[in-house]
Amino acid sequence: MLEVSAELRGRHFTRVADWSGTELKTVLDLADELKRLQASRREHRLLPGRALGMIFQKPSTRTRVSFEVGIAQLGGTGLYLRADDLQLGRGETIKDTATVLSRYLDAIMIRTFAQEDVEELAEHAAVPVINGLTDAAHPCQALADVMTIRERLGRLDGVRLSYLGDGNNVCTSLMVAAGKLGMDFRAATPPGYEPAAEPVAIAREAAAASGGSIELVGDPAAAARETDVLYTDVWTSMGQEEERERRLTDLAGFGIDERLVRLAGPDAIVLHCLPAHYGEEIAESVLYGPQSAVWDQAENRLHAQKALMALVIG
Ligand code: CP
Ligand code: NVA
Fold first, then answer.
1. 127-155 pLDDT, tens per residue?
2. Which atom of ligand 1 is nearest to the CA of 274?
3. Which of 15, 50, 111, 186 is catalytic?
4. Residue 74 Cβ contacting ligand 1 at under 6 Å
5. One fold for both 16-137+301-313 and 141-297?
6. Domain locations in the chain?
């Protein structure tokens, strides 16, 4: 049976910034191993009888299914908890919810709006809390992203990644992970869509220590030229629907099309956290084209999160 390190047991995963590059690599190594075991249908019930509660205040396809299937493959049970169906939706406090759920569950995954709510849940929970997306961060996505990059390119150190579009939650978590893992990260955004100043500072400090770099630019073509990874995400995130028209105008020209992929070069891979909007942030032909690693990336959510759960629940 697989040996899993106890070093990360009990840890929350609410933002990438709280984890070291070495700790992130521990998750990636186990994720690779679990992917191999799953592919050959070998036993890896690392969490028999454990229960994961999954609180959702926003919709989800990948996060919900990959966590629910992932905990089942590890021998445990996942509970889908719609936030509005909990007493939380009627005013029960986050503190009381955290305290009670900790008596039933071995870990809590939450997808919600405010990052502060996830931090408050973690503060009061006696079990690990995993951030399944907030307005500010999407750390589980970043794990799958760097897993996919390492799988395709064989390394992370010195890998050039260009993120094009909205400097949102996905961009932020990926940027901080890139800084910790020695990557050369560049975000090309229109004015006003840059990633937030605090995570940029955190990522830059991490990059200074890891040998990586973090650059913010305004020209998508310059960012795409000679890069190893082209990355994009939706222009209108969940909760921003009323801004959609303005965002379509502001972000025009930042979509990944075949021209930008050609600028990147024939060995570059294309990533997108999904869901995609064809003809906006990505062309359908690129999403399904020969350089797309998007579907592996989506699959890797499963393996990366199984590794994360195995390590923090223990
Ligand atoms: N990428 C991602 O988190 O997808 P879902 O919103 O479908 O979970
Ligand atoms: N930035 C997107 C990611 C969806 C998985 C959003 O927050 O809606």
1. 999 999 999 999 999 999 999 999 999 99
2. 1
3. 111
4. no
5. yes
6. 16-137+301-313, 141-297
**CATH superfamily placement of domain 16-137+301-313:** Aspartate/ornithine carbamoyltransferase (3.40.50.1370)
Active-site residue 45, yes or no? no
Degrees (nearest 5) of the Cα angle 161, 163, 168?
Answer: 135
Q: Which amino acid is at 99?
A: T
Fold adopted by 141-297: Rossmann fold (3.40.50)
Q: Give me the catalytic one of 233, 272, 291, 305.
A: 233
Q: Tell me, what DSSP letter sits at residue 256?
A: B
Question: Quick one: which of 30, 28, 25, 24 has its CA closest to 3?
Answer: 30
Q: Contact at 8 Å (CB) between 272 and 261?
A: no
Q: How far apart are CA 183 and CA 21, in angstroms?
A: 11
Quick check: CB of 173 below 6 Å from ligand 1? no
141 an active-site residue? yes
Gap from CA of 138 to ligand 1 centroid (Å): 9
State which H helix or E strand residue 192 sits in: none
Kindly report the pTM of this predicted structure: 0.98
From the list 15, 150, 171, 273, the catalytic residue is 273
CA of 60, nearest ligand number: 1
